[in-house]
From TrEMBL:
InterPro entries: 3-oxoacid_CoA-transf_A, CoA_trans_fam_I, NagB/RpiA_transferase-like. It comes from Pontibacterium sinense. This is CoA transferase subunit A. It comes from the Bacteria. One of its GO terms (molecular function) is CoA-transferase activity. Keywords: Transferase. NCBIfam families: pcaI_scoA_fam.
Length: 233
């Protein structure tokens, strides 16, 4: 295989270089499309002082929530944090800094960071606590606030299929934050359900081109349901 081969054979290789006080951007929405193996490796490595950028912080005992158990996370940049009792405890006790960000704004912060755009204006959050202290400009009679983009030393992403060159396809709802997160890391690690040979993926179906991806690993995944809701009989 050529030098373009990005497949690694262990999570130790996949997360090599991660250190204390770094920023990690994590794809996923709730428990859907989360990079479980990369998260488990971060816990195993014991690095701390991390800033984690993700839609949410998993749940107690699963997903990003396991990084709270040993207080590895210094700061969370998230849009939703309501499913994690340990998260709430650490926040209320001043052990965890939290920057709540509107969901669409968070997605655009990742996308803009990956595109090399340092900041952008959005109407979301104007006139609320989110907009306090931020630059305001008026466009076509509507007020917008300036939001800075986000990048990180690492981005960890969950895909469905990838080829050995790092081209990735996501499945269904895993297209949530994963494509944006994949562009915003200096080192982007993608774990997938299946790795195929170059040429086997339809180029028109690629969601994340391999140019954004540094490492690919095949993982195994536990497909949990965050809130199981059924209809009454």
């Amino acid at each position: 295989m050529s030098g373009f081969d990005k497949v690694v054979n262990s999570y130790e290789e996949a997360m090599a270089g991660l250190d204390n006080d770094m920023t990690v951007i994590a794809g996923g929405f709730g428990l859907c499309g989360i990079p479980e193996g990369c998260i488990a490796q971060i816990k195993k490595m014991g690095v701390n002082g991390l800033t984690i950028v993700s839609n949410n912080c998993g749940v107690d005992g699963f997903g990003l929530g396991i990084l709270l158990e040993d207080k590895q996370v210094k700061k969370m940049v998230s849009s939703y944090v309501g499913e994690n009792a340990l998260f709430m405890k650490q926040l209320l006790e001043g052990e965890l800094e939290v920057e709540l960000t509107p969901q669409g704004t968070l997605a655009e912060k990742m996308r803009a960071g990956g595109a090399g755009i340092p900041a952008f204006y959005t109407a979301t959050g104007y006139g609320t606590l989110v907009g306090e202290g931020k630059d305001v400009r008026e466009f076509d009679g509507r007020n917008y606030i300036l939001e800075e983009s986000i990048t990180g030393e690492f981005a960890i992403v969950k895909g469905w299929k990838a080829d050995r060159y790092g081209n990735v396809i996501y499945r269904h709802t895993a297209q949530n934050f994963n494509p944006m997160a994949a562009t915003a890391g200096k080192i982007t690690v993608v774990e997938v359900e299946e790795i195929v040979e170059p040429g086997e993926l339809d180029p028109t179906q690629i969601h994340t081109p391999g140019i954004y991806v540094d490492r690919v690993i095949q993982g195994t995944f536990e497909k949990r349901i965050e809130q199981r809701t059924v209809r009454e009989a």
